[in-house]
Amino acid sequence: MQKILIIKPSSLGDIIHSLPVLNSLNECFPEAEIHWLIARNFAPLLEEHPMIKRLWIIDKDRWKDPLNLFSTMRDLWGLGKELKKEEFQIVIDLQGLLRSGIIAFFTESPLRIGFKEARELSYIFYTHRVEGGRDIHAVERYLKVLSVLDCPVKEIVFPLPVRKLSEDKEYYEFLRGEYAVIAPGARWDTKIWPAERFAFIARRLPFKSIIIGSRDDIPISEKIVRSSDGRAISLSGKTDLKELVEIIRKARFVLCNDSGPAHIGAALGVPVFAIFGPTSPIRTGPYGKNVFVFRSEVECAPCFRKRCKSILCMESISEGYVWSKIRDYLNL
Q: Secondary structure of 2-17 in the HEC alphabet?
């Protein structure tokens, strides 16, 4: 039995962008066991995936703490020993960092594939290096690793398994009928569009909006709810990743910043209206046919800064302009 390991622990958008590699591997090697190494907080996204035999879950966030250096090295060594026992014939490192390169090396697989331009010298741990390029979208870049395996990409597919939502959940009643999904959060403060502008859109829609996010997004979600004239409800901090996917799957569209929900929506074929300021959608934006990206015209964008005094790039994208595009899409 052939065994394949995909190393892609994070982040949410990157994992979504890696799914076409999983789909193509499943088509090219239908009898193979495919394993995936993933960070603990993203594991629910791929749990019980029909194409994945086993998830290897790591505590990536704990490993990043310098105070945990010795325990991290011990964990890596132990993980390497367990991975070696699996005797993987193929290991694909899509993360391309020192830690992921070391993990690939520890497997002692005869075929370890990664990118020539991988960071932190991780490329020294690969047996085969692919030139991914930096001016193409991540989805297309990741798929280049399949060239080593003579595995053709017949179609770019994002295999996200369907999960049934429990009717016992307090939010289930809100999912009946039509609704929009608003995801106002982002990992960087500079990527967040003002709350009142999301509320401006919610007030004008002919159906309700469901606001999603983590616990950290509760304050901005509550601001939107208060300004929505009763047209929005917040589920921020109340759903896990599996539920988040299903809520997005059934939505009319997703309105969001440059964040994970944008990638989930695009992968599911749900129309996505994404607002970009300090970042660029060219390499890591939502990938799909029904994606509408709003970009700032200010000279300093994209700057890729996590902190900024003015955040002019986000503030310059008007709610009226965004609404006009959504209105046209809805034929209102």
A: CEEEEECCCCHHHHHH
Measure the CA–CA gap between 279 and 304, rounded to whole angstroms: 5
Q: Please determine, for residue 100, whether its predicted confidence score (pLDDT) is greater than 80.
A: yes
CB atoms inside a 10 Å sphere around CB 77: 11
125-178 pLDDT, tens digit per residue, is 999 999 998 889 999 999 999 999 999 999 999 999 999 888 888 788 888 889
Distance CA 274, CA 50 (A): 30
Sheet bearing 128-130, strands edge to edge: 54-58, 33-39, 3-7, 90-93, 112-115, 128-130
How would you classify residue 14: left for phi > 0, otherwise alpha for psi between -120 and 50, otherwise beta? alpha
Nearest to 85, CA basis, from 106, 113, 54: 106
Q: Using CA atoms, how far apart are residues 87 and 77, in angstroms rounded to an integer?
A: 16
CA distances from 34 to 27, 51, 54 (A): 12, 7, 7
Using alpha carbons, list the distances in angstroms from residue 5 to 36, 82, 109, 127, 155.
6, 13, 10, 15, 21
Q: DSSP for 188-239, please give it.
A: SGGGPPPHHHHHHHHHHSSSEEEE---GGGHHHHHHHHHHTTT-EEE-TTS-
Mind listing the pLDDT tens digit for each residue in 256-306? 999 999 999 999 999 999 999 888 888 889 998 899 999 987 777 788 888
Extract the tokens encoding 276.
């970009």
Tally Cβ neighbours within 10 Å of residue 246. Answer: 17
d(CA 141, CA 215): 33
- In three-state secondary structure terms, 178 is coil
Tokens linked to 294: 């709003």
Cis peptide before 214, with omega less than 30 degrees from 0? no
Nearest to 310 by CA among 323, 320, 299: 299
Number of neighbouring beta carbons within 10 Å of residue 106: 19
Quote the tokens at residue 109: 């697989």
